[in-house]
Amino acid sequence: STMAPVETEKSITLPPPHFVLVPLMGQGHTTPMADLACLIAGRGVRVSLVTTPVNAARLRGLADRARGAMLPLEIVELPFPQADDGLPRGSNDNSDNVLQLFLSLYRLAGPLEAYVRSLPWRPSCIISDSCNPWTVGVARSVGIPRLTFTGPSCFYSLCDFNVAKHGLLHNGVVVPGMPVRVELSKDTWAAAFLTCMPAWGKFVEEVREGIRMADGAMVNTFLGLEEQFVACYEAALGKPVWALGPFFLNSRDEEARAVDQSAVIAWLDMMDQSTVVYVCFGSLAQMLPKQLYEVGHGLEDSGKPFLWVVKESEMVLPEAQEWLQALEARTAGQGLIVRGWAPQIAILSHRAVGGFMTHCGWNSLLESVAHGVPVITWPHFGDQFLNEWLVVDVLGVGVPVMPFGNDKAMVRGHIARAVSELMGGGAVAEERRRKCKEYKERAHGAIAKGGSSHENLTLLLHSFMWSGSKEE
Ligand code: UDP
């Protein structure tokens, strides 16, 4: 049930806490924010999750679930003002389209402010995806605190903060101000901190400023994984950094395992314990046909069982489809190819899965680590390069498919080698698996009652209950 208004000593009635969450529209980013909404509402605190009409369809499942569990969670559909901004349209470059999407969301500032002002009580706080820096103006205008939710690892957020602070001009190869050594090639540096895309410059600066201006940051991680980086980030920002994750373990994990009856799971049921390598590159990264062939041959040559997710958009060419069918025929019994979307959490929690080849999106890495599955890393873009450094170099639970970041000469031999290294025996591979199991235990410990993420959420909610803002 929702918390009743709080009686203070002076008998002033403070409004009950209420959080307004503003996710970045788009699959990979909305999911953790939706999980966070459930987490907060699960404590009986009122949550409004803001969305656009297009995105609302994706959240229908969540809305039903919340209603079923009687959570004080509502989905608020904001009208999306029509475009009249002179922005270029119809670019074929995927990164351009992504930027245009991010920029188009700035138009939600007016509708969000109107929504907040329409409420009988001022909300306690806005929680904004850090890629929505336009919420800074809304929070200031209505006079309520604002926390940012940063999607990637805390390690990445700290690297990015330090690089921005100490200046990008040096363009050195060592990330400054880190408690561990982080060294990138020049190309990787440019791809990781987006300096290779000048069109993004202004937006990237606004995101950074939005994080610096916030009253604190929320990260989807846990102290047992990133404690030193959470501490350093907190010191760097001079604001609280709340490690509350892994978000998905609280709600979707059990659900995914309980309901999934798909053919994929039936196939996994036939395989031996920890023998299958799962291969999936997230919701955005796209393989060229050439890369697709190398991945396929590499998996085939490794001789190990594999479960490989290929996107519809990667199979538009008839040649690619034919090639995949031929591969399927040759590897029947060894491999399974899933076309489109796979139930990733159910797959990673299956006992047959012993490794995960990933593009190092933070959600994927967290899902893997929280299930005790070590990874093969093949980053494509942005924060993924630093997430790779974290899991390979710092945490010791990953094998890079190529020595850091250089995927120019990616060939099947590298893939086959990485699969053998990860899935094989030997002391190094065993140690990797042991560490990963330990992080799995810690992840579950963190979200259990009394665990660090659970306690952090309690502290965070309390900080808004007792110093809640009064009406003007
Ligand atoms: N995902 C999934 N099935 C797929 C591909 C992706 O369920 O076939 C989910 C995955 O579990 C993760 C998210 O989509 O939660 C991808 O997020 P991530 O941060 O790893 O990468 P992004 O898609 O943002 O690049």
Automatic annotation (TrEMBL):
Main EC class the enzyme belongs to: transferase
CDD domains xrefs: GT1_Gtf-like
A GO molecular function held by the record: UDP-glucosyltransferase activity
Annotated InterPro entries: Glyco_transf_N, UDP_glucos_trans, UDP_glycos_trans_CS
Glycosyltransferase keyword on record: yes
Coiled coil: none
Pfam families: Glyco_transf_N, UDPGT
Documented EC number(s): 2.4.1.-
Keyword vocabulary terms for this entry: Glycosyltransferase, Transferase
Protein name according to UniProt: Glycosyltransferase
